[in-house]
Description:
By secondary structure, the protein is α/β, with parallel strands linked by helices. The chain has a single domain (10-24, 55-303), classed as Rossmann fold (3-Layer(aba) Sandwich), CATH 3.40.50. It has helices spanning 10-14, 28-31, 72-83, 95-107, 122-136, 159-187, 208-228, 255-269, 279-290; strands at residues 63-67, 87-92, 111-116, 141-144, 190-195, 233-240, 243-244, 277-278, 301-304. Strands 3-2-1-4-5-6-9 form a seven-stranded parallel sheet, with helices on both faces. Strands 7-8 form a two-stranded parallel sheet.
Amino acid sequence: MDTNAHTSTSSDADAESPARGRRSVLGGAAVLGLGIAAFGTTAHAAGAPSRSRDKAGRFQGKSVLITGGTSGIGRAAAKAFALEGAHVGFCGRRAELGRQVEREIRDAGGEATYIEADIRLEDQVRGFVDRVASRYGGIDVAFNNAGIGGGKLPHEMSVEEWDDVQATNARGVFLAIKYEIPHMLRAQRGVIICTSSSAAEQARPNSAAYTASKRAVQGLVKSAALAYGPKGIRVNALLPGTTDTPFVRPPGIPDADWVKYKQAWGPLNVDGFERMAEAEEIARAALGLASDDFPYMTGASISVDGGSTAGRRMIQPSRT
Ligand SMILES: NC(=O)c1ccc[n+]([C@@H]2O[C@H](COP(=O)([O-])OP(=O)(O)OC[C@H]3O[C@@H](n4cnc5c(N)ncnc54)[C@H](OP(=O)(O)O)[C@@H]3O)[C@@H](O)[C@H]2O)c1
């Protein structure tokens, strides 16, 4: 389990927070393990993570750029792409974590470079993209994944908080695309995957800023897919459901309590697989979309959410 330090504010995580899931009955106390036993535990055969198929070499020698590779889904994707032969350039603001991920990939025999960059800042995004392209000979795949939460009711959210969510999640993806595309146009090919969220499809009362930002990502993706499809560039959006990363895991919670919490949370919040995703499962979806297996797919929003947006469980009132 990923135990990286959680640097988001508590409100950052709220928009995806399990504690605020649409059917969650667990409050903050439950996060700390109180009252969890009442829900028992559930075995989840369906959808349980399985060992990855042997696909070494799918990205052999390809240049892969990832935003937000210091943690969670981006970190898992950086490792997975490198394991399949890619040369991975990734960014994030936390240099120590970035260097650690880079070291882990190299120690495992892969090739990766961490570049410190803040996705909100145009100069840093341009510098990051250009450095990855010049180091690895262009950009074959871009996974625009960096993002933050922002769970507050609109009237309780400051303009600065709203702007920060949009600057990171929406403008950050725009900036990345803006500077990735010229490299792909030169090569007349490329694949871009942008991390949206199931929250783009399924809002919550406190998800206005986050949902708006992730809907913006879908809009950007559709437009870019039309603009660059004729040039051989595919652009798709990935919509993960709630995923076990520092984005949703409260900082400092002991592993055992978190496991119990997840076991109680899943059946209440995810129709279908009844559990949250592991970062590696979302990363594998990103690799699939980036691979040559989907040459005719562009402008699409792909849900990878265990079924959570497929339906809505009908809970019948008791007949007393
Ligand atoms: N976990 C979920 O339940 C879930 C569900 C649906 C969608 N998502 C989306 O999935 C993506 C990855 O989230 P995660 O779950 O992996 O969360 P995470 O573990 O918190 O990772 C977020 C990543 O984004 C980076 N990032 C954030 N702000 C940045 C900035 N201004 N500049 C550069 N990098 C920045 C972080 O790096 P630094 O902090 O080092 O900058 C980190 O590497 C996000 O877009 C999120 O919205 C997550």
